[in-house]
Amino acid sequence: MSSVFSMFMSRTSINGLLGRGSMFVFSPEQFQSLLKVGPDWKSHRLLDLGAGDGEVTKVMSPHFEEIYVTEMSQTMIWQLQKKKYRVLNIDEWQSTGFQYDVISCLNLLDRCHQPVTLLKEMRSVLEPTRGRVILALVLPFHPYVENGGKWEKPSEIMEVNGTIWEEQVNSLAAVFQEAGFVVEAFTRLPYLCEGDMYNDYYVLDDAVFVLRPV
C-alpha cells in the first residue's frame, strides 16, 4: 500500500492514512527532567508544531490545560482531531492573540522551508518570563522539505557549522541567540521512528534543547 501511494503522496501523509509512522522522542520522565518540573506540574497552554499523529504530544499533554497543534499533512490532521487536540493552521498560530507557556518544535527545523523565520515566530508568541521552547533536531544537520513524493531544498538557509555532533550543537547556540533565545538545557536522545517491512524501527540521533527567551 505504501509503495503504491508513494507515487502521488508524501511519506508523512501515507503514514497518517495507514495509521502508522509513530515517533518516539522522549518519555514523560525525560520531558519533566528537561523542564526541571515534577510529575504534578501544571501549566496553561502548549503548542506542538508539526505534531504528526500526536503520540509525542500525548507525552506532554497531561501538564497543560489547553493543547494546540499544527500539522501540514491532512491525514495526520485527521489523527490529531481523533485525539481531540485543537488543530491550528500553519499560518494561524502566530496570530491567535494569546501566548504559549511551552512550544514544542520536535524534528521540524530541518524539514521546513523557513527555519530561521520559524524560530523568530516562536519567540514572538512565547510567554516572555516563564515560557520555554523544547526543540529537537536530528544531527548531523541535513535539511530538506517533503513536497508530495519529492524532496526539495529549503528556501531559507540556517547556518549550522561543523561536521561532528558536538560542533553542530555549539554552532546552534549562536543560531538560537540570533532568534532571541538562550540554551537553558540540552541532551542527546535516540529518536525512534516506526519501521517498515525491512526494519522494525529506525534510530536517529537527536539533540534536544530547552530554550529560554531573552
TrEMBL record:
Tell me one Pfam family matched here.
DREV
* Segments passing through the bilayer: none
This entry's Gene Ontology molecular function terms read: protein-L-histidine N-pros-methyltransferase activity
Q: Which PANTHER family match?
A: DREV PROTEIN (PTHR12890), PROTEIN-L-HISTIDINE N-PROS-METHYLTRANSFERASE (PTHR12890:SF0)
Record-given protein name? Methyltransferase-like protein 9
